[in-house]
Amino acid sequence: MNLIVSNPKGAAMSGSSQSDTVLDVNDLRIEFHGKSETVVAVPTLSFSVKAGESYGLVGESGCGKSTTAMAIMGYLGNTGVIAGGSIRFEGKELVGASARELRAIRGRQIAMVYQDPMSALNPVKTIGSQLAEVPLLHLGVSRTEAMEMAAAMLADVRLPDASDMLKRYPHQLSGGQQQRVVIAMALLARPSLLLLDEPTTGLDVTVEAAVIDLIGELRSRYSTSLLFISHNLGLIAETCDRVGIMYSGEMVEEGPTGDLFRKPRHPYTQGLIDCIPDITHDKRSRSLAAIPGHIPLPQERPVGCFFAPRCTGFTAGLCDRPDLELEDIGGDHVVRCIRWRDMKRSQPAQLAQIGKAQVQTEAVAVSDLTKLYKLGGDRTLKANESVSFNAAKAEIVALVGESGCGKSTLARIVTGLDRATSGEIRIAGENVAEIQAKDRPRHLLQSIQMIFQNPDSTLNPSHSAAFSIRRSIKKFGIRKGKAAIEERVRELLEMVRLSPTIANRKPNQLSGGQKQRIAIARAFAADPALIVADEPVSALDVSVQAAIVTLLLDIQRERQSTMLFISHDLALVRHVADKVVVMYLGKVMEQGTVEEVFGGGTHPYTEALISAIRSPNPDEKRRVRVHLTGDTPSPINVPAGCRFATRCHRKVGAACDSVPPPLRKMSDTHEIACHIDAAELRTTPSPFGASAQGCA
Amino acid sequence: MAALDIPDAVQVARIKRQARSNWMRIFYSRTALIGLFLVTFWVAAALLAPVLPLPSPTDSDVMAMGNPYPSAAHWLGTDILGRDILARLIFGARTVLSVAPLSVAVAMIVGITMGMLAGYYGGWIDTVISRFSDIILAFPVLVIYVILIANIGPSVTNIVIATTIASAPGIGRITRGLVLGLKEQEYIAAARLRAENTLYIMLVELLPNCRSMLIVDACLRIGYTIITIGILGFLGLGLPPPNPDWGGMVKESVTVLNVWPLMSLIPSAALVSLVLGFNLLADGMREAWKP
């Protein structure tokens, strides 16, 4: 069994004792000079990274964290200017340094790993030649030596068959492998500082877990300092020694990881921690606390505390003073909040009484659903194969899985945007599996509505926000007459907590969260019985995410609508769902109530998914991490036996590879498709120990 | 949960900035302004032609024939038949500025329809339309014009038909490309889920989002069509005389090019300024509407 309790922090403990500073950013001011206006992206920012330390920079989009990284690398482009302050690297000033001096440092002593590996790699050059470039350029070695170093480094980042890998092109690798190559490239020059800008954001959770473990491991081997930029608090908490929280271009709080997450002093930090769902609680034990409002644009920053307009503790005359400084509160912990002493750790918000769905009338029944895409030749892509599950009225069923597992295809079939190859979906007695939207009778269309993933494409940019809501009411005849329709639009906007003045705005004048609220209002405008929500919050910032999820849950409970909630985020699913269906490569691996699926005795894949979740709670028991090897196979060429066999850490033998697994009935509601027998599956420990059970 | 949005000064400022309409944004582009000036100049001249104190564009001034240079009576001189060049230019602008936009408008309607059908439906409809377009686009444009006009004779209608056949496939291709991307957007799926019919989706959900690209393209095409009309005039396939026609003016004076080059150069310069105007306007709009 390849179970390891990982501890990526290991290196830091020894490294930080020699506390010389690698990177020292002091009063940095970054401006972007546009044609007509100047935007101050970062007004003033100071922080430092010590040798061997891992420093986490956290914040939501638009807070200036990536801009800071780009400034350190000297990549601000034609319009970006460092207008003041200094960036010192090992004592050398980088601001104003000549291009030649910078070239010697960049790539050689400071390396960077970007968010999107595909755009960091050159698609027309082999991995080998791209990797070899680094030692050729920076270390002045011969070509053969450089290739040897590249091969050795590939082995170090756990890429199998390094010599073969060197000859491949980037598009022949999976996303996880590409990111490993980018990390290998960054480490080849033995940099003393590694900048990681959201290095795992585009990756699946199990792949992310492996990449993060790798980074921790490599760090201890190469004693590199890390500047880790992410919006994911859980990741930062696990990988970093010190954390800086950025808000609107400023550092609002900084401190040692454990101290900061245990005792956050700044209301923004508290808000960030409170708004993310954690895996040990569900909607009955804790509700998510959203931060109201949104991050101000650089031109719109208020005087004094930038967070003031969103802060519940705002005090006039105190928080709007222009001279707010970072205050040392002891223990290496600084905070930019004048009222930090009064800030109490907020209590979990009042819980709404959420009963379980009482009457078990069946609302949706999916049975033996299969969707094949013919790709020409004799190749077929199996998007869904014999998927069966059902949902009771007013129940939220979550479909969970990584990319390519077929959850979105299933959503499209249910709504009629696509058609099943075979199988049944029964809704109110009718089988809709093979009827596409254009052939569905109006009452059927009305009863199934969808909330989409991408706030930027969910509304037509040419029409006003209320346009599609109005259209939906009219089309389905929910209300008749202009005045009645307008009245209904206003009600729906109110329901999603938007002011009616927003109705006439174009989508480009709305924030991501506002657009998604409109999309929710549009879906509910038809009074549907079933809502299909396809990753409704995955494109939003965490603080907005919490607000949207809470809203969605409120409306769903009030309307008693059934919901299919599709997500890759297990912590969120744990929070939202009544019932969970775990999918992998088009097949259902496990299904059961949320307590059953998250409560131990689960499918090995579910076990891996759950163990990959990271929590910012420093007091939470370190979970046993399951390490999956390799990547998800292509859905065109699926494994013959159990779909998960190629990556499974609990394989029982040859049967796994050749025979489809039997369905183990764990209880009336809990089913697992696995070769391991039910009794042994039951002994799998709960990933969170006993405490989680108590909460649920 | 108090997630009502804060209607503060912050929001208001943001709305104001973004509400600056597409058309207003053109005025912030220098390129577009120069183009707009040139086009407006010719449009104004053409509109005001009947009321401007100009000599008749068709009457010959026998006195000026021996000395066709610019004078107080004829600001830009006269042509070989003693007709006032300025008057012929301005009246010629009326022709070119009505025929070119009309031709392009018809071509846009046909082209957008083709592209919309091909892009939205895909499959065999797309194949038929796209292959047909490829065939036409493979012909040299001028040859199409010459063949058509030489066979069906020069008239406004025929120039419109010829322009449509030559330009519609190109417009169709642009529209098809836009629609292919747009139809995958989630708002199109949302429209399908509320039982909108295909025509509605095409006209209300898709077309408005192709708007800016198509307006830029139309602007460029008007410029090209003006050149084509000029060339046709030069080849003697333009509008029949005595209508003043810029291409025709060059053709008539080309025999005396060595003696009186102004007679050819002035209409050529007029053509250049107008086409340049449309091209600059198109470039400026593209820049201003860049997403």
Kindly describe this structure.
The complex is a heterodimer of chains A (about 700) and B (about 290). Helices cover about 30% and strands about 20% of the residues of chain A. Chain A is an alpha/beta fold. Among the domains of chain A are: about 20-110 and about 190-200 and about 230-340, P-loop containing nucleotide triphosphate hydrolases (Rossmann fold), CATH 3.40.50.300; about 355-460 and about 520-585, 3-Layer(aba) Sandwich (Rossmann fold); about 600-695, no CATH class. In chain A, the strands form 5 sheets. In chain A, strands 7-8-9-4-10-11-13-12 form an 8-stranded mixed β-sheet, sandwiched between helices. Chain A has an 8-stranded mixed β-sheet with strand order 19-20-21-16-22-23-26-25, sandwiched between helices. Chain A is globular. Chain B is mostly helical. Chain B has one domain (about 30-45, about 75-290): MetI-like fold (Orthogonal Bundle), CATH 1.10.3720. Chain B has helices at about 10-20, 20-25, 30-50, 85-120, 125-140, 140-150, 155-180, 185-195, 200-235, 245-255, 260-290. Chain B is elongated. The interface of A and B includes residues 450, 461, 499 and 526 of A.
Show the helix and strand layout.
The complex is a heterodimer of chains A (696) and B (291).
Chain A (H helix, E strand, L loop, with lengths): L2 E2 L5 H6 L5 E13 L4 E13 L3 E5 L6 H9 L6 E10 L2 E2 L5 H7 L4 E4 L3 H4 L6 H12 L4 H14 L5 H5 L8 H14 L4 E5 L7 H18 L2 E6 L2 H7 L2 E6 L2 E7 H6 L4 H9 L51 E2 L5 E2 L26 E13 L5 E13 L3 E5 L6 H9 L6 E6 L2 E2 L10 H6 E4 L15 H9 L6 H14 L16 H14 L4 E5 L7 H18 L2 E6 L2 H7 L2 E6 L2 E7 H5 L5 H8 L13 E2 L28 H4 L4 E3 L5 E3 L4 H5 L8 H5 L1
Helix pairs in contact in A: 5-6, 5-8, 6-8, 8-9, 15-16, 15-17, 16-17, 17-18
Chain B lengths: L8 H11 L2 H5 L3 H19 L36 H37 L1 H16 L2 H12 L3 H27 L3 H8 L4 H37 L11 H8 L8 H27 L3
